[in-house]
Design goal:
Number of strands: 25
Shape: globular
Distance between the termini: 70 Å
Strand content: 5-15%
Helix content: 40-55%
Length: 965
């Protein structure tokens, strides 16, 4: 494996293949000069980056990841000089085709994630690669948030928020990006960099770009002088509207620099690169109450909107009859929804958000009177129960997953949006439903932000069938006529992109369309920034480069390529993300189907390290995926396919001799610890060179001595069965525990239980047992089954046929054992959760350390023990710190030993955050994660229960404090 690949970089590769346009060497050299070491052009690099959340697919010639605004400016100059089309891409969650191109794709996410909170949270300065969620997490400490609240906040980035003028469920047009962006640092197509927030920004623009400055003022005067133009602007921008350029900036602003700043908002990467954006934030209203209102039909629901809007509801979400039918299939659907005899019903999900409990109580009382006067089909009330509210929102937010996840294999899910004046919402929805029927789109749902007249609808289409492409085109033409006939906009939130570029002139008219064309010519005279997007002379641009989705396998076929998985993936900055792993499977299948066996083989070969070897199989992707795909399942299966019968037999042998295997590993670590410091490193390096990185772990100085063997512990009246993890045998404690002989969390947990008066049983034969994770993660299915067959009868006896819970002292092992024993009637509980509920209430008051930094693990997240972890941590420390930019450490059992570059990449951002805190202690809930974070930060991490055991341990009389007189 090339050393460059281990750093996550790729050497440019100009070789083309049938079906994959070649990239010429001169282009690659030009890009390399602009952004040294940041250019990737292998087949897998280009194909993985080509896919976004839209239904378009254009394969770039190269992918570039500049490290800052200076390299971006150099890339702009190179692109202009060579006539290279250039597309900016950050989160890739855009739905309209604006984030892909067949020229140079520039990644604006990896090196642009800085966030700086200003003025106690009243403002925030952000780079384009930061997600909305990460920005809001920083602002939440100050009781503030961004105004825009897009549903894709987990993955969409500030670059896309600005480029698409994002809004969302509650912000309307009052707090969207256009209204809350204060200033920006722009890189113009000429390479000029301008900070529009400095006091003399307008003068600088006049000096640096006199033609742009004068041209913007000329266009301003032209627009203002035309009553028809100003009337159209006021009408369309009274709605949520992301069609075309923000020509309302010519009416709303007078200075050229302010006009420029606001023209860039919603420009979809066609006018400038936003290197930095400063926003005015809005207050968080933490007190909320939610209700689901059912009506007999759409007319009754939309008829209630004026009263609901007047009552000040922050969110009013519409669900049509088909939406309710789809939502009712969900196991989490409310009893009321399941019990409703659905005919022509519609529903409105409403929510009040208030700054105080008293203000919320007042709104709830007022709402009760309002509801009494509405023509409801079922009783309704507002609730502030977090569980019930989450269930109600799941009804709304789960629609996309329900329809997209159940779509036929080989089809593409299209989520579209429009907006009309609120008084035209009923006829627009009625006519849209008729269009679904006319064009035979079954199960197409309508939902959306009713108080804004903004609705979304979801279609499934097969773009491999020319007949169905014609159907889609005919539907689009009818839909355009419908929306414009009601005085609406063809894109409310998702941006013009490619999908609506041919219709911009029809929506705005000739005059404003020509103004938009002049804006583009003024700022990007070479036309290299994102051609084909937002404005296009090609009337068929919206039905060109349509994405087909070949049938591959279950994990792959359900994927809608939304990208929600990417921010939580630990390998995202080293190799690939879950979405990219999936799309490369699709691309290999497409190449096989096309008869291009060489390209398919090349993709598979290049993806071996990137896709398979460096996947942490941590399951975090599933926590973010709307259709619940765990890409780790795919990776494990691919690892299984790679293994031969010999490897499977060795896996079974290891399972049957696990006590010896773990003791051998412990002995090796103890010997390495005792050896001269350079010797273990040299030995592992030689072994890795001879046998490969997938077989021989890399030794590093932070690795501890080996641990101690696990032993049975009988009990007459146990409250639980303890299943200490084998990790405590292989890896010794971070520091010896006075509760035992260096047993770490194992001895700490037993000491805590004894202190709390809780009797615990450790089963006979424990030294030979394991949760099965080592075999499962490597695809050793036979060994996993062999271990299950060993564990199940032992725990069935020890638990009294499932009467007692099994407690595990490592989060990943808790998750692994629960999976191993699924459907066998045995309850598995993590030791932290057990301590929170059963042990902590019976412990003496702790002598708390001043502060502790907590590293949540992927398994603790998937187990849902986040709150338990924080409560136990708060019992042991006065201040509990959760670092910014937490993610899975990717140590993943032995991944961090086999591929230390994976853990280094995954932990880099969190480690920087940890170093800013002078904490007294650092904890996690998994021994290998503790090793990974120790390596990353230089601070010794240990298990949370070790810290709690220290804090609650009785002090010898000689060390107790003498009461003051």
């Amino acid at each position: 494996m090339r050393h460059a690949e281990h750093r996550g970089r790729r050497a440019p590769d100009a070789r083309g293949r049938p079906g994959l346009p070649a990239t010429d060497g001169a282009t690659l050299r030009s890009l390399e000069r602009a952004a040294p070491g940041a250019v990737a052009a292998r087949a897998s690099d280009r194909l993985a980056a080509a896919h976004d959340a839209s239904h378009y697919l254009l394969v770039p010639r190269a992918v570039v990841r500049p490290d800052g605004a200076a390299q971006m400016a150099a890339l702009f100059r190179a692109a202009a000089a060579r006539g290279l089309p250039l597309t900016l891409r950050s989160g890739g969650t855009s739905l309209s085709g604006q984030a892909g191109g067949d020229g140079v794709l520039v990644d604006t996410r990896r090196h642009f994630r800085d966030i700086e909170v200003l003025d106690d949270g009243d403002r925030v300065r952000v780079q384009p690669g930061a997600t909305v969620r990460s920005v809001n997490a920083r602002l939440a400490r100050f009781g503030r948030k961004l105004g825009a609240d897009p549903a894709s906040e987990i993955a969409c980035t500030i670059g896309g928020v600005v480029a698409n003028n994002s809004s969302g469920m509650a912000c309307g047009t009052e707090y969207n990006t256009y209204r809350t962006l204060e200033s920006a640092v722009l890189v113009l197509p000429s390479g000029t960099t301008l900070d529009t927030g400095v006091p003399d920004a307008d003068d600088r623009l006049r000096v640096l770009e006199p033609g742009i400055h004068a041209g913007l003022l000329r266009l301003r005067d032209r627009v203002r002088a035309d009553p028809a133009s100003t009337a159209t602007i006021r009408r369309l921008f009274a709605l949520k509207n992301t069609m075309g350029y923000a020509v309302n900036s010519f009416v709303d602003h007078s200075r050229a620099v302010d006009i420029l700043t606001h023209l860039v908002i919603g420009s979809e990467g066609t006018l400038a690169f936003v290197a930095e954006a400063t926003f005015r934030t809005v207050p968080i209203h933490p007190h909320t109450a939610t209700g689901l209102l059912f009506f007999d039909d759409l007319a009754a629901a939309t008829g209630a909107l004026p009263d609901l809007v007047a009552a000040g509801f922050a969110a009013v979400e519409l669900l049509d009859t088909t939406s309710l039918r789809v939502a009712r299939r969900d196991p989490k659907a409310t009893d009321q929804l399941r019990g409703l005899d659905l005919r022509t019903h519609a529903a409105l999900l409403v929510e009040h958000q208030q700054p105080t409990a008293e203000a919320l109580e007042d709104r709830v009382r007022t709402a009760a009177g309002l509801f009494a006067g509405l023509p409801l089909a079922a009783p309704a009330a507002l609730t502030d129960s977090a569980h019930t509210r989450a269930t109600l929102w799941h009804v709304r937010k789960g629609l996309y997953a329900a329809v997209a996840g159940a779509r036929p294999s080989g089809t593409t899910a299209l989520l579209e949006d429009i907006a009309v004046p609120v008084d035209r919402l009923l006829p627009a929805c009625t006519e849209l439903t008729a269009l679904f029927d006319r064009h035979d789109y079954s199960d197409s749902v309508i939902f959306g932000h009713a108080k804004d007249g903004n609705i979304h609808f979801l279609l499934n289409e097969d773009f491999d069938d020319a007949r169905l492409v014609d159907r889609y085109l005919a539907f689009t033409e009818d839909m355009v006529d419908l929306v414009l006939g009601h005085g609406g906009t063809l894109k409310a939130e998702h941006g013009t992109g490619r999908i609506m570029a041919p219709y911009v002139r029809r929506q705005y008219g000739d005059e404003l369309y020509e103004v938009m064309r002049e804006v583009k010519q003024l700022l990007d005279p070479h036309g290299f920034l994102n051609p084909g997007v937002l404005l296009s002379d090609d009337p068929a641009v919206h039905i060109s480069h349509l994405k087909s989705t070949p049938t591959v396998e279950s994990e792959v076929d359900r994927c809608v390529e939304c990208g929600y998985c990417e921010p939580v993936c630990p390998s995202r900055d080293l190799t690939l993300t879950p979405r990219q792993r999936i799309v490369l499977r699709r691309e290999a299948a497409r190449a096989h189907h096309a008869g291009d066996a060489e390209l398919a083989a090349r993709i598979e070969a290049e993806a071996q390290y990137d896709s398979v070897d460096t996947c942490a199989v941590d399951g975090m992707c599933q926590t973010a995926c709307p259709v619940l795909i765990d890409t780790g399942d795919l990776t494990r299966r691919l690892r299984t396919e790679r293994l031969g019968r010999t490897a499977q037999k060795l896996g079974v042998s290891a399972a049957r001799h696990w006590d010896g295997v773990t003791r051998t590993a412990a002995g090796a670590l103890t010997a390495a610890d005792a050896a001269p410091s350079a010797l273990p490193g040299r030995a592992s390096a030689v072994g890795r060179a001879l046998l490969g990185a997938e077989l021989v772990p890399a030794w590093s100085p932070e690795l501890p001595r080996g641990g101690s063997p696990r032993r049975a512990r009988p009990a007459r009246a146990p409250e639980a069965v303890f299943f200490p993890s084998c990790v405590t045998t292989m890896f010794g404690a971070a520091q010896p525990s006075s509760a035992g002989s260096g047993g770490g969390v194992r001895e700490a947990f037993l000491a805590l239980c004894e202190r709390a008066g809780i009797e615990i049983r450790v089963p006979d034969g424990i030294a030979s047992l394991c949760c099965g994770t080592p075999w499962k993660s490597k695809g050793l299915t036979d060994g996993h089954a062999a271990m299950r067959d060993l564990v199940l009868p032992v725990l069935w006896r020890a638990t009294g046929n499932g009467a007692l819970p099994v407690v595990v002292d490592a989060a990943s092992c808790s998750e692994g054992l629960a999976a191993l024993l699924a459907e066998h009637g045995i309850t598995v509980v993590d030791a932290v959760a057990f301590t929170d509920t059963a042990v902590l209430p019976r412990l003496p008051r702790a002598r708390r350390v001043p502060s502790v930094v907590v590293h949540h693990t992927c398994s603790s997240t998937r187990l849902g023990i986040h709150d338990s972890l924080l409560r136990v941590a708060a019992a042991a420390a006065e201040t509990v710190v959760e670092p910014d930019d937490w993610t899975c450490c990717a140590f993943a059992g032995d991944r961090g030993l086999l591929h230390p570059e994976l853990t280094a990449s995954a932990t880099a951002s969190e480690a920087r955050s940890v170093r800013r805190h002078g904490a007294s202690a650092h904890i996690s809930v998994n021994r290998t994660c503790e090793l990974g974070m120790t390596r990353a930060t230089g601070h010794p991490y240990r298990h949370l229960l070790e810290l709690l055991e220290d804090a609650t341990r009785p002090q010898p009389p000689s060390t107790q404090a003498v009461p003051s007189k």
